[in-house]
Design a protein that fits this description.
- Two copies of one chain form a homodimer.
- In chain A, the strands form two sheets. Chain A has a six-stranded parallel β-sheet with strand order 2-1-3-4-5-11, sandwiched between helices. In chain A, strands 7-6-8-9-10-12 form a six-stranded mixed β-sheet, with helices on both faces.
- Chain A is elongated and about 85 Å long.
- Chain A has helices spanning 4-13, 24-31, 35-42, 50-62, 69-76, 91-105, 124-135, 150-158, 182-195, 211-225, 243-255, 268-280, 298-302, 314-330, and strands spanning 81-86, 111-116, 139-142, 162-167, 177-180, 201-205, 236-238, 262-265, 290-295, 308-311, 338-340, 343-345.
- In chain A, helix 8 links the parallel strand 3 and strand 4 (162-167).
- Chain A contains 14 helices and twelve strands.
- Chain A has 357 residues and is α/β, with parallel strands linked by helices.
- At the A-B interface, helix 5, helix 6, strand 2, helix 7 and helix 12 of A face helix 5, helix 6, strand 2, helix 7 and helix 12 of B.
- The first copy, chain A, binds a DNA duplex (16 and 16 nucleotides) through helix 3 and helix 5.
Chain lengths: 357, 357
DNA sequence: CTGAAAGCGCTTACAG
DNA sequence: CTGAAAGCGCTTACAG
């Protein structure tokens, strides 16, 4: 795949297989300008004559020069790392978010590094702080619930580190936010269930430490209210956004005398737990129990019956978060906020309630 | 969380919130040694007197000095990045692999960066090569099927870049391998099904471009042979390690006149596709059809009935791969190969076949 | 609009 | 075992 002769000679020159690398000095010499001028071209400084720029760019292209990220990082006092700091327990969410960010970063100078954290770890903020102090990343992207931690956001501002928060409510200036309208999505779930004729409707929400749990709960409540339906305490359970906690909460809900005919779970993981609880209780889905989830993870469409859920375009959100962050870093002027409204995806886990009572 | 007075003074000195950072020069001055000696301590050089080392280490600790990764990278001509280059389509596999690697990297000087690739992209090897040339990572970790690409391995050797290949057969020197005995796992699946009394047993295997697909197929065949059972062509289908292709392959298998009574799928994703095909065909699992998967992803235990599958400890494999890589990088002498043998996890998707025929 | 000097915080190569 | 000098490949601060 490579010129054999030149490869041989390179090997002779550098036995470790390290090919001679074109540097800014080579380009400066060849283009007959100072290295500072090459630097200006690399960094898109306006202080370069068009003629000079074109010439330098031609030389750069001809020699396949790519500035060394490590050297730039040292001189800039800032690395070309973008950090995803997350604590979302759903692997689907995480992978899609990563893919979205990588979509945007591909072709840029930045690399994605991962910082999974545990908000129950008392040192979790310290871990983020140390990472930022040591590696001085270009910026951080924080999905819920890390995004909801004001202390972390303030710390990043003090450290002069850019960031984007993905969250279900406005908790920062627009240019630093990717907003999701979770409440509206939950309201759609409520309208769907109420519209089918359900009246005894329950809700399993995520941990109270997640703002999204509140938003979804309140949105769901508002949606029900449009149909003059209430969401009493007896019909609510808190769970941990995981399968196991979803099973437990649903077990509990279905053990009562007046069972709900429909359950809206705060995410798909818990909704899938509701399937398991329903089976244990001898209930058919959707005949005896309608189930709605939130997220539309791939698993939703693989369940039987397929899960009706509220879709949030995670990957596209990741793309947009990275785009916004890159804009902040480069100081681009057009910094508007972006907002994603979820949509309900009706599948087979919801139906009219059986006439009972 | 921090000494208030010192934080204030730092803010006054550096308005951008950039706190003065302790460098190797500060430590050298305070410890009254040359910076080269500090460097030796940092890098665990044996050429330091114990007295000197202890003293320098005390000063380092006292001042919370952490060497700048960017500066070290520039001087070393090698960055403190570990790259995961993967093309595995299962999000569960990817997330668990990442978590395992991060377990090991946590506390080290290295950061994990992601390089998802598409082996159908004609430029995919070029993408890896360019990443390595530009970022000079400490090393790469490659799970299947990227690990099975000899061209990539040779390229990395030429570039002098360390790597670890996770694969189901010995394709490199032991110190560069994390081996999995996929064939043995598949043989266990075969023994389990044959032991239950199945005779018409089918296999949906992954893409032929994955060596693991071959290993699992051959292991399964050998396991059946122990029970004098054959695996005829009519009972084999190729699919893409994804849910959708799994559904298709199973549809096809179940459309024939002599339906299999059991199907072993090459991974869980496809096995879950078999559930869907079985339902479409009006078959009950496990009464009419036994199903076995491979991987034991979290979804396996969430299916109904729960999926019998072959478990590979992905996260532990990730940990071990990162450990081996760090050993290679530091030139540690004890470099043995590690090997993981999968185990069958019997759940509820397998049972004795109904007496028919 | 362009450049020469100094510096980012480390390590390598050499000397002792 | 220890250190002074030069260098890694860029950018900042300053001058013109």
């Amino acid at each position: 795949m490579k010129n054999h002769a030149s490869e041989m000679s390179a090997v002779v020159e550098r036995p470790m297989g390290e090919r001679t690398r074109v540097t800014i000095n080579d380009i400066a010499r060849i283009a007959n300008v100072s290295k500072k001028t090459v630097s200006r071209v690399i960094n898109n400084s306006p202080l370069v004559r068009d003629n000079t720029r074109n010439h330098v760019e031609a030389v750069i292209k001809q020699h396949g020069f790519v500035p060394d990220p490590q050297a730039r990082a040292l001189a800039f006092r800032r690395s070309f790392l973008i950090c995803l700091a997350y604590d979302n327990p759903s692997p689907q969410y995480v992978v899609n978010m990563q893919l979205g960010i990588l979509d945007t970063l591909d072709g840029s100078d930045y690399q994605l590094v991962l910082q999974p954290v545990d908000r129950n770890d008392p040192d979790y903020q310290g871990r983020i702080q140390r990472f930022v102090e040591r590696h001085r990343p270009g910026g951080l992207i924080m999905p819920p619930s890390v995004s909801e931690d004001e202390y972390v956001a303030e710390m990043l501002q003090k450290l002069g580190c850019d960031y984007i928060r993905i969250a279900s409510l406005d908790i920062d200036e627009p240019a630093r936010m990717v907003r999701t309208r979770d409440a509206e999505g939950a309201a759609q779930a409520a309208r769907h269930l109420a519209g089918l004729g359900h009246e005894r409707i329950a809700h399993i929400h995520g941990p109270r430490s997640f703002r999204s749990a509140h938003e979804r709960m309140e949105g769901f409540r508002r949606g029900l209210a449009e149909f003059d339906l209430a969401l009493p305490e007896a019909m609510m359970r808190e769970a941990g956004y995981t399968f196991d906690t979803g099973v437990q909460a649903a077990d509990n809900l279905l053990a009562g005398a007046r069972r709900p005919t429909a359950i809206f779970a705060g995410n798909d993981e818990m909704a899938i737990g509701v399937y398991a609880a329903a089976r244990k209780a001898g209930m058919q889905v959707p005949e005896d129990l309608s189930i709605v989830g939130f997220d539309d993870t791939p698993m939703a469409a693989r369940m039987w019956p397929q899960l009706t859920t509220v879709r949030l375009p995670i990957r596209e959100m990741g793309r947009e978060a990275a785009r916004s962050l890159l804009r902040k870093i480069t100081g681009s002027p057009l910094q508007m906020s972006s907002c994603f409204t979820p949509d309900i995806v009706v599948r087979q886990s919801t139906a009219r309630p059986l006439m009972s009572d």
